Amino acid sequence: MTRIPGLFSTRPRRMLLMLALATVLPACSRGVTSTPGNAPNLERWVAEVKNRPAPALDPLPVMQQFETFEYAAQGLRDPFSNAFSDQSGGSGPRPDPNRPKQTLEQFPLDSLNMVGTIGKGSGLVALVMAPDKVTYRVRPGDYLGQNDGRVTAVHEDRIELVELVPDGAGGWLERPATVAIAEQ
Fold first, then answer.
1. 3-state secondary structure string, 14-48?
2. What is the rounded CA–CA span in Å between residue 77 and residue 59?
3. 114-130: pLDDT as tens digits
4. 161: which strand partners?
5. Among 27, 113, 127, 143, which residue carries the largest CB count within 10 Å?
6. In degrees rounded to 5, what are phi and psi of residue 175?
7. Does pLDDT of 30 surpass 70?
8. Which is it for strands 113-118 and 172-180: parallel, antiparallel or unpaired?
9. d(CA 21, CA 4)
10. How much is the pLDDT for 50?
11. Angstrom distance (rounded) from CA 172 to CA 105
């Protein structure tokens, strides 16, 4: 690479820098500096803006008129009452409110674990462990769970029972359920 003498010397650089400063500095000083002569122009403009009349406000929206409605269904049947359900006792299954509750009725059915059986044939008794870690003996006719579950049969691997659940219309439905022996 050949070098051209004088092209990168300091004198042309200085000249170029001074020329750039001479053109840029006057342009910057025009808008930045504040002279006492500019203040009256600003004050006059502010006074002129303050003296202008306020713009007109938009008109208020017209309120929509709604048709009034008078509720006149006080004499009709309440749709949320149980007046349509059978309150006379009916022939369907019902829990016995006078029956004393047994110990295993305080636990949900899915929290009870069958752990074994004792006996043979019709004298078979199931062993059920409750969440309180106590093992109870269960025979047909006993009650389990929180839905009035009456034990109908005890087998070596499961307990069969029938629960009474509300049907939502004031009556009760029988629902079969089982508690199986826990596999190890």
1. HHHHHHHHHHHHHHHHHHHCCCCCHHHHHHHHHHH
2. 49
3. 999 998 877 899 999 99
4. 151, 177
5. 143
6. -130, 125
7. no
8. unpaired
9. 27
10. 92
11. 18
pLDDT band at residue 28 using 50, 70 and 90 as cut-offs: low
Which amino acid type is present at position 109?
A: L
Q: Which of 4-8, 38-42, 51-55, 122-126 has the lowest mean pLDDT?
A: 4-8
SS3 sequence, 47-84?
HHHHHCCCCCCCCCCCCCCCCCCCCCCCCCCCCCCCCC
Question: What CA–CA distance (Å, rounded) separates 8 from 30?
Answer: 34
pLDDT in tens, 76-97: 877 777 655 555 555 678 888 8
User: How many Å apart are CA 87 and CA 84, to the nearest integer?
Assistant: 9
Using only C-alpha atoms, the chain has a radius of gyration, in whole angstroms, of 48
